[in-house]
Design a protein that fits this description.
The structure is a homohexamer. Chain A is of the alpha+beta class. In chain A, 22% of the residues lie in helices and 34% in strands. Chain A has 2 helices and 4 strands; from the N terminus they run ββααββ. The longest helix of chain A is centred in the last third of the chain and has 16 residues. The first copy, chain A, is elongated, with a radius of gyration of 15 Å. Chains A and C meet through strand 1 and strand 2 of A and strand 1 and strand 2 of C.
């Protein structure tokens, strides 16, 4: 198994819905370091999993609509409870659309929300 | 697959038994950064894997009896050769007791013992 | 010169006022890792600059009113343009009040706002 | 599953062949942080996956022939397009030779090439 | 004293001249994480030391001519022994040209060349 | 001002004397990441502050007598209350002996004891 990963970050505001979230029900915010990794069973003719420049660009374009936004008022996310887990999956889905499906590959998206907490979503790149 | 992780740390003294350990057979110590991650196939109604506050508290309570202790003299660990691998598993078992079993979830415990060494134990949350 | 430092973090929402800030004029947010350091010319009878537990508690209590808040609506910060530099200084002032003045010591407050940007305010602990 | 990991680093020059690589086709260089991890289903009589001193030494010896070299002119790598993915696998193969095969264990080699990019190769320790 | 900092990175090849450098006399390379910080005694009307977007752009433009280059053959650095210390100062000088002199401010440039080595040059922003 | 820094680490046991230290009065331990930096006003003929290999070796030799030790029973430190601040100064003194005095240079020694606490001692390299 080969893998390639790149990271970027976004700064957003949001609030979480549900008593479970305690003070995080208030409007607050986060810097998310976004780490994405593509794993595949073989390398291509260039000895790579994926063109890292292409992956970096796809990630930046995927994150752009979230950057410096209040997620509570973003039409793109209307009605969603934007937990870190949810955002991992939302970015995963958006990245697959940009990169195109690859049935043999797996895409993992990790959001680091603070020096001691993070979430991840991993599923086939499809 | 979704996952959520949190980290904390402890500072302990101990010695390791067996020639394999060379100078680490002497009484010495470590700061362990403890990183725990729960992975599950689906989110609950709140769009989370687990309540992160609950996970953080469970981890703190699990680590408390080890904090600022000499593990060689801790009744809780009597007779154990407290390698980093062993401590990962001990914390795993103690965390499962606090969190309760979840047959569909997997718990991973990583201890980072220095800027260039770490160990991990991962098994079902059960 | 001796120094002791501790770190903590907060997650907040805010917006910045002024064309200079471009898209950061929109309501967004940040995780700030807050690193504070006290420097002094000599150690006390306990061989320390300051009781690290006391410093950690003072920092936590100083940050508590900002935690999970929208700074734009926080009476405590009414009228302020809450840039990272400003927040460093605000925390500095609040920490001095909690710790008490020490004419020979210097307090530095650093806020890391993303993997590649930070700000700092340093001045006498007075 | 138990795992143990250690890290080291090398500083090398190389160029990449193929239009995909854009400016990285020019002779340039990298500091690679090399993180290796061995995972196994059980601990040995010493409560460890592998002697960490032995693993550290094997990694150092494996990296030594690459250290401070221009990979484009290294006979050891003649004809190879030395992408980060390729180097992960090359180090994996060389480490297995030093450590000896262990059918029940898995070896993962990660190269971190910059603050926001990395690659990995993971396969049985055999 | 207020300060603002941003970081970026470059990947270069070079060799060092002089017996002091041992194996680093061979053509090798490095990923340099470049951390720059501007310190000033007061904030401007926007509550900032410097426009962080402007600083980030100035740093990127300063680093661009070094990116993916073999410094031994770069006319810009002809005749120089490109130690990490030297590169810190070279980047400092180039950044001052882009940012313009500010007599009250100080600019510090740190290059992190590996997980355990770095160099810095700090001088007035002039 | 130019500076060069290197880091290493040690794993030790110790206890702290005095009610101030609360639970840290018990025998416990720490992994200390040790970061040392030499600052000087000018570079030598090789464009460096100090030979980094020489600095690394001097640091390793300075730390060796502390490595895997219980500081409470180390004759070298007899009678000392081995706080992090004290250890910074002790390492500073020992490093100056190995490196030799340089009247124009300043040596800073930082010990990172956990992900959120550190201490430092800085004084002339003399």
């Amino acid at each position: 198994m080969y893998a390639v990963g790149v990271s970027d970050h976004i700064m957003i505001a949001h609030s979480l819905q549900g008593e479970t979230f305690g003070p995080a029900q208030r409007l607050h915010g986060a810097t998310y370091e976004v780490r994405v990794e593509i794993a595949a069973p073989a390398l291509d003719a260039d000895n790579i999993v994926v063109d890292i420049g292409l992956l970096r660009t796809a990630l930046r374009e995927t994150l752009a609509p979230l950057e410096y936004q209040n997620l509570d008022e973003l039409p793109l996310l209307a009605g969603a409870n934007t937990t870190t887990e949810f955002l991992c999956q939302w970015i995963h889905t958006a990245l697959v659309k940009r990169l195109g499906a690859r049935l043999d590959a797996r895409l993992s998206v990790t959001l680091v929300e603070s020096p001691n907490a993070w979430a991840r979503y991993a599923a086939p790149l499809a």
